[in-house]
Specification:
Strand content of chain A: under 5%
Structural class of chain B: mainly alpha
Strand content of chain B: under 5%
Largest sheet of chain A: none
Oligomer: heterodimer
Distance between the termini of chain B: 69 Å
Number of strands of chain A: 0
Helix content of chain A: 55-70%
CATH topology of the largest domain in chain B: Tetracycline Repressor, domain 2
CATH architecture of the largest domain in chain B: Orthogonal Bundle
Distance between the termini of chain A: 57 Å
Largest interface: A-B, 15 and 16 residues
């Protein structure tokens, strides 16, 4: 019988991904502003 | 085998909510609000993205400090009814995870502030976090009844950081905001400690009612309340705010003093609970009025 080895993403890790994604977007925005392009 | 591998990090059964609780969201809301007020009161302008980054950095930095405070205090938190359901004493998060979470968020918040704003604001944020952890949590809290008086400096810095984010300086006006929160902190926490007296005694935390007694604490509450009210009028006197704010500050202050006086006269815990609740609304309302006054009048 084949067993699934990778667990589903937990709620905690999903939240972590969203937070990290948002932070990367924020860093992009900051760099745009700091470079005077916005 | 597979099942045990998958569940290995689930031993402590921490959910997202537990990590949010580690950031002390209610304390954070007051910190964010006063920081935002400092930012809005400062003369000059700041790009909305940078303003958002500054406030976010303050929020995350305050949360990280709260997290590290809970990591250090997990032994005494387990002894007090008010705090024993927190994620660490309740065993839902392991101490190492909380320590890592707090340290990483502290560094991220300071670095973000430095990159987005400038290193003065980042330095002030770093001082706030370090002061709260090393001076207040690790040193003063378990050692002296003046713990929250001196430790209050950490909670009073956010409006200074917010102000400096806009101007790049820390003028007298910003330090008046600092002073208001600094003088507000003792009556706020002593009101709490009056009706949580047994908790603090059990955990051997030298809060003023435990070491100096109930009556001495009540006298100190009234004394600090009077000093606080006087300082809240200074912005009007030096032209930092108009008499409209001055009127509101007087009214709010009169309410604070009458409650503090009731605490002093009565032995029941009810007035102390009311004073604690009122003090939170008071600080929100005072900063809101001063900010609106500076923006619109």
């Amino acid at each position: 019988m084949k067993q699934k080895l990778t667990p589903k993403l937990t709620r905690r890790n999903k939240a972590l991904l969203y937070v990290l994604g948002g932070f990367v977007i924020l860093l992009y925005l900051i760099s745009f502003v700091r470079m005077g392009q916005w | 085998m597979t099942a045990s591998l998958i569940s290995i990090d689930e031993t402590f059964d921490a959910d997202v909510q537990d990590y949010i609780d580690l950031l002390k969201p209610r304390v954070m809301s007051l910190v964010v609000f006063t920081g935002l007020c400092g930012l809005l009161m400062a003369p000059g302008s700041i790009h909305p993205v940078l303003a958002f980054s500054a406030i976010l950095s303050i929020a995350v930095g305050a949360g990280a400090a709260g997290c590290l405070n809970m990591w250090w205090d997990r032994d005494i938190d387990a002894l007090m009814t008010r705090t024993q359901k927190r994620p660490l004493p309740a065993g839902r998060i392991d101490p190492d995870s909380a320590l890592a979470f707090g340290v990483i968020l502290s560094m991220v918040s300071v670095m973000t502030m430095g990159v987005a704003i400038h290193w003065l604001a980042a330095g002030l944020l770093a001082i706030t976090i370090l002061f709260y952890i090393f001076i207040y949590t690790m040193w003063l809290k378990r050692w002296t009844p003046q713990n929250i008086v001196i430790g209050g400096a950490a909670g009073a810095l956010p409006p200074v950081i917010g102000w400096s984010a806009v101007t790049g300086t820390v003028p007298l006006e910003a330090w008046i905001l600092f002073g208001i929160i600094f003088l507000w902190t003792p009556p706020h926490f002593w009101a709490l400690s009056l009706y949580r007296h047994d908790d603090y005694a059990r955990a051997k935390v030298p809060m003023l009612p435990v070491t100096a007694g109930i009556e001495a604490t009540k006298r100190q509450i009234v004394l600090y309340t009077v000093l606080l009210i006087l300082l809240t009028l200074v912005p009007t006197v030096i032209g930092m705010a108009t008499w409209v704010y001055g009127g509101f500050a007087s009214g709010l202050g009169a309410g604070f003093l009458s409650l503090a006086w009731r605490v002093k006269l009565q032995d029941a815990v009810q007035p102390a609970m009311q004073l604690f609740a009122y003090s939170i609304i008071y600080l929100f309302a005072l900063f809101l009025m001063m900010t609106l006054d500076r923006i619109f009048l």
